[in-house]
Write a structure and sequence with these properties.
Chain lengths: 855, 294
């Protein structure tokens, strides 16, 4: 007796539950288990042998196990996806991303992961496969009933989007000499233009005359006894899967349409038939192919007698853009309209089964054909369009940004990334899938139409591209540099599931820099002046964005800024090497060009109050003053010389340009060994500035582990490259000074990670007795900021939360009429782009408010 | 918006203390005794805090008084009537609390610290208080505004370290005499840190004399002046942290840890010295150039 695999065990343990679901009767269940067991045992053998060999040696495995090369490859693929080949370093990319979900070794997770990654094709196969009927599709969305689910993972294993061995695609009847191969179409025999001669079919079936004719013949010739296909219902936009049992039904019930409409969910209903035809899109064909290799639902698939593929029409509800198959390469015969003249259909005969059926139709004179010659115009059209589905993301890697050499850049304040070249832009833009439902737009806090600007870039329509970006985002040169794209638009990018996401940030930066260098600056169209005054308090990212939006809507905008220059955190916080200040200045110039006034050195709440501004004629207010108050840790020695906040350190270095001392008067002092406390972007910035100011060693001390660091990965890697040291799971206990009150050491304690805390990260807990000292002469505290009360104190009736942040609704409306707020003063420390998003939403709300008020 | 220098004069005879009157209508409108402004003279300048020595809401002006100690103050002293200061931010900090106290209020002004005493003394006097002022300096040349302060004081005591004017000795001596003489409601000390330290030690009740509430004005190193950078922070004797910019500049002197603050004040000593040296060289070169061309 072979060892029982986890999959078989789960199924046997849940036998009653499965039988209760009535998909299998007892006999079928045994047959099902038997076929699965065969496959599982084979894989176990393969796994054992690989373990013994310590590597995947196909030749040896073939000889020892007496299994065909194909089967071996399929088995290995399966094992790899299960994570069982990790020990020899064979892990699939997809497996890595689902690793945590593989709760039990030897079992796959359920398909919700495919749905959540938005790569579900909607084929519906998993519904038929599920032994407990736990899966259904409601309004095209896959649902799993947790009560019914037995976590066997069969749905994932059968899904053609989870893993699909490439070998499956390219090995169709390889030995047949009639088979031709082209990258665009995969295997085929002949390509025709065809037209039905059967007038009744022609009239009723219209576009689908060929398929209908072929099915009619198949029924007549007893090639099939049933067909499943998508047909129209009375509601034209709601096609449904149908099971057709005879020629008559074919005409009566269903007019076939291009769609996949979860067709394979009715595959289970076909088990009482012996010879079933399936008519479907490329993804349907792919799904059928996969279960023909992995016998996951034995009674229901080996009755498929004919696969008629339809060309893919990019059914956009699902992730069609993943698939490079236009012509339903895995069918017996593919049919579509592309490549033929009006009134004709294109037919690609692939397998002998498909070719024979077509020949019968010709012999019966029900169809007439013209060969599409390989050098004809129609052939070219077809191959060109088919090739367009051969997505470039597979061939072109994500373009890597050229960066200044770490050894050089650690001594200067010049920008680290040098930007994309035109050549790189050409390659990168080709990788974009141009999705039907672009998730990247949803991932962007200001909803830039990313696919559109990438499309325009691809066409080298640069000025149109920048105009498009600026419609949504007036500060693209800044966002292209400092947005955490990896957790926003790029995280949402579909490519991320199969390859690396498209480099949206780098492309945005490219087009913004192109605009900066060009003579005529892109400037969005503004509405006619409304002569209504709006005050923006704070010239940071939220305020500048809100101002820009209001300017475009024709408002008379004045920005009040506390500092002597605009940009907020962009100028005092983010260092020159990450965001050149010239860029911020230029972006503000754009606002001035649109008519904005900027009043520097105006601390609202001190020099003027909101009431004063009201009496000056301002009708609405946006507060975007940021979270400008440092957080200190509770340790002794905070006031020693050499201990400073990141706010002070960075403001001196960035805003006051202390890195150019003595050319600039503001001094900055840097010791030999600088320690930075914290793990966010501000900590990274502080560490890297310290290095550039001449520190011999810079150590970042962070109380959690590398994994929990909130800093952008890219910035963390930049810091590592530049030679910054990290001490994780370490927390300060006290700062120790010398007789002159200069800091000389920091006592720290090691931490371990405990339970999850409110932030969803594991709480660091001190390890008793693990204290030690770090020699240091500068300590920079970068552990976050709080709300600054200067402005809010001056408006006592403004509603704040318990931490002093302003309370607003989603759109930024406060409890006071005409007063709106956004950015860090509402949310606490967050990102530049989320502040910009808040500024943008508030602008819309202010516009609505003022428009209503005027009526 | 620019900030024009409308008036400029030297105070005293030392040649290092100056008074300038700035055109700042908006700030003047909101200025009160106790407030300060941050100024940045030019594009490469640093932001330095200066306490408001007087203001005129009608004319829209602020008066500031400063002593040349480093590059920025020297550069400021080289500005003339009609010149413009690039940035003036304010009014910052808390205004003083004006009320009628039961007993006299004593001002202790040391050197350039005499100037910010003036608006406070004036406003408290107007509120009906009895004002006693002790003005001290190293020598006669550094004294100024005796008459101005005299006009708002019921009693004025002058002392110099070298005895060149008034009593010889430090300000704490006449202060002790006052403490012995009768009850006082409040002492306000503005001047060098070391002077303020000893004033607080005199009034904290540790020397057998009565304890009197004492405010000191902290003129620490600052950047933004809004509580953002934390550079101006001062430790208190009970281990807490205060910010001179938003908690002050006038704070309860008895809780300030002066020993630490004295060290903190000198933390950029080397850089400040270098900056001043370079500026002096620059001035010299410029002077030579001017002489050469004329």
């Amino acid at each position: 007796m072979e060892e029982i695999s986890p999959l078989i065990k789960v199924l046997i343990d849940n036998k009653q539950k499965i039988l209760d679901s009535k998909k299998y009767n007892e006999v079928e269940f045994d047959e099902f288990i038997y076929s699965l067991m065969q496959a599982e045992n084979e894989r176990q053998k393969v796994l054992k042998k690989i373990e013994e060999l310590g590597s995947i040696d196909i030749q040896k495995l073939k000889d020892i196990l007496k299994i065909s090369e194909h089967r071996l490859i399929y088995d290995i693929e399966y094992l790899k996806e299960l994570g069982l080949l990790e020990f020899i370093g064979e892990i699939s990319e997809f497996y890595q991303s689902i690793e945590e979900k593989n709760e039990k070794e030897g079992l796959f997770p359920n398909v919700s992961i495919i749905r959540d990654k938005k790569i579900c094709s909607g084929c519906g196969l998993c519904v038929s496969i599920c032994p407990t009927n736990a899966i259904n599709f409601l309004n095209d969305v896959l649902n799993i009933n947790d009560d019914l689910c037995i976590n066997c993972g069969l749905c994932y294993a059968c899904c053609h989007r989870s893993f699909f061995p490439r070998e499956l695609k390219d090995n169709q009847e390889k030995l047949d000499t009639d088979i031709k191969y082209l990258k665009e179409f995969n295997n085929y025999r002949e390509i025709y233009s065809a037209q039905t001669k059967d007038n009744i079919t022609k009239e009723i079936a219209q576009d689908w005359e060929i398929v209908t004719t072929l099915l009619k013949i198949a029924f007549k010739q007893n090639i099939i006894d049933a067909a499943i296909l998508i047909g129209t219902t009375e509601k034209p936009n709601e096609p449904l899967p149908f099971l057709i049992q005879n020629e008559e039904d074919l005409f009566k019930k269903a007019r076939i349409v291009y769609n996949n409409a979860n067709l394979l969910k009715i595959l289970q209903n076909s088990k009482r038939f012996k010879k079933v035809a399936v008519v479907g899109t490329p993804c349907i064909m792919e799904a059928l192919k996969k279960i023909s290799i992995y016998p996951l639902n034995k009674p229901f698939y080996d009755n498929i007698a004919l696969k008629i593929g339809s060309f893919c029409m990019n059914h956009s509800l699902f992730g069609c853009f993943f698939c490079d198959d236009l012509t339903a390469e895995l069918s017996d015969i593919s049919i579509g309209s592309i490549g033929s003249e009006r009134g004709w259909s294109t037919v690609i005969a692939r397998t002998s089964r498909g070719a024979n059926l077509f020949q019968q139709a010709l012999d019966l004179k029900l169809i007439e054909k013209k060969i599409i010659e390989e050098d004809s115009k129609n052939f070219n059209t077809l191959s060109k369009i088919a090739k367009s589905k051969l997505k470039m993301y597979k061939e072109i890697p994500r373009q890597k940004m050229i960066e200044q050499d770490p050894k050089v850049r650690r001594n200067n304040f010049l920008e680290v990334p040098k930007g994309y070249t035109l050549e790189m832009v050409k390659l990168e833009t080709q990788r974009c899938l141009q999705c039907g439902i672009p998730l990247c737009i949803e991932g962007c806090p200001v909803n830039v139409d990313i696919p559109k600007f990438i499309r325009l870039l691809r066409q080298e329509k640069f000025s149109e591209a920048i105009n498009n970006v600026k419609t949504y985002n007036l500060l693209p040169a800044i966002c292209g540099r400092v947005c955490p794209q990896e957790i926003q638009c790029e995280q949402a990018c579909l490519l991320g599931s199969v390859s690396n996401p498209i480099a949206i940030g780098n492309l945005e930066r490219f087009i913004a820099d192109w605009d900066r260098k060009s003579q005529v600056k892109a400037c969005p169209d503004c509405q006619a002046p409304k002569n209504i005054k709006v005050a923006i308090i704070g010239a940071g990212p939220a305020g500048l964005t809100c101002a820009g939006e209001l300017l475009m809507r024709g408002y008379d905008v004045t920005i009040f800024e506390a500092f002597h220059t605009g940009g907020g955190v962009l100028v005092y916080g983010i260092p020159e090497f990450r965001l050149p200040k010239e860029i911020v200045r230029e972006e503000i110039e754009t606002l001035k060009m649109l008519g904005s006034k900027i009043e520097y050195n105006k601390i609202i709440g001190k020099i003027m109050t909101i009431e004063d501004l009201k009496s000056m004629g301002f009708k609405a207010f946006f507060i975007g003053v940021g979270a400008g108050l440092p957080t200190f840790i509770k340790v002794s020695g905070l006031s020693l010389n050499g201990v400073l906040t990141a706010n002070e350190f960075l403001t001196r270095a960035n805003l006051m340009k202390a890195y150019k001392f003595p050319e600039y008067d503001t001094p900055i002092k840097i010791g030999k060994i600088v320690t930075v406390l914290g793990g966010g972007n501000v900590a990274m910035d502080s560490a890297r500035v310290a290095l550039r100011l001449g520190a011999e060693r810079v150590i970042v001390v962070y109380r959690r582990s590398e994994k929990e660091m909130p800093a952008r990965r890219a910035e963390y890697h930049h810091a590592i490259e530049e030679g910054i040291e990290f001490q994780f799971l370490t927390n300060p206990v006290s700062f120790i000074g010398d007789e002159n009150e200069n800091v000389k050491q920091m006592e720290v304690i090691k931490m371990r990670l405990g339970e999850l805390d409110d932030s969803g990260r594991r709480r660091p807990i001190p390890i008793e007795g693990s204290e030690y000292k770090i020699d240091t002469d500068t300590i920079i505290i970068a552990i976050g900021t709080k709300a600054n009360p200067i402005l809010t104190n001056s408006i006592p009736e403004l509603k704040l939360n318990k931490w002093g942040y302003i309370e607003t609704n989603e759109q930024g409306k406060t409890n006071l009429e005409g007063v709106y707020a956004g950015g860090d003063i509402v949310t606490g420390s967050a990102t530049v782009i989320s502040a910009m998003g808040a500024g943008k939403r508030a602008a819309t709300e202010i516009d609505n408010y003022l428009t209503k008020k005027r009526q | 918006m620019t900030y024009k220098i409308l008036e400029k004069r030297e105070l005293g005879e030392s040649g290092i203390v100056f008074e300038i009157v700035l055109e700042t209508p908006l700030i003047a409108k909101k200025a009160y005794a106790g407030n300060f402004v941050l100024i940045r003279i030019n594009e490469t300048g640093e932001r330095i805090p200066l306490t408001i020595a007087d203001y005129d809401r009608e004319k829209g002006t602020l008066t500031i008084v400063f002593q040349v100690v480093g590059k920025s103050t020297k550069l400021l002293s080289h500005q003339n009537v009609g010149d413009e200061i690039l940035d003036v931010v304010g009014p910052l900090g808390n205004k003083i609390h004006i009320k009628k106290y039961e007993y006299p209020v004593v001002f202790v002004g040391g050197g350039v610290g005499i100037a910010p005493c003036y608006p406070q003394a004036k406003e408290l006097k107007e509120a009906g208080n009895t004002i006693i002022s002790i003005l001290g300096a190293r020598n006669k040349g550094l004294l100024f505004w005796k008459d101005k302060m005299g006009a708002v004081s019921d009693e004025i005591i002058i002392c110099t370290d070298d005895g060149s004017e008034g009593k010889k000795g430090v300000v704490t001596e006449p202060l002790k005499d006052l403490l012995k003489r009768g009850k006082l409601s409040l002492v306000i000390a503005i001047g060098p840190l070391i002077m303020m330290k000893f004033v607080t030690l005199t009034t904290n009740g540790s020397n057998g004399l009565p304890k009197v509430k004492t405010f000191v004005s902290l003129n620490t190193i600052m950047i933004d002046g809004t509580g953002m950078c934390g550079g101006c922070r001062f430790p208190t004797i009970d281990g807490k942290i205060g910010f001179a910019c938003v908690d002050g500049p006038d704070v309860d002197g008895h809780i300030v840890d002066f020993n630490n603050l004295l060290k903190r004040a000198n933390r950029f000593e080397k850089q400040e010295k270098k900056s001043l040296e370079l500026y002096d060289q620059e001035c010299k070169a410029l002077k030579k150039f001017d002489e050469g061309s004329s």
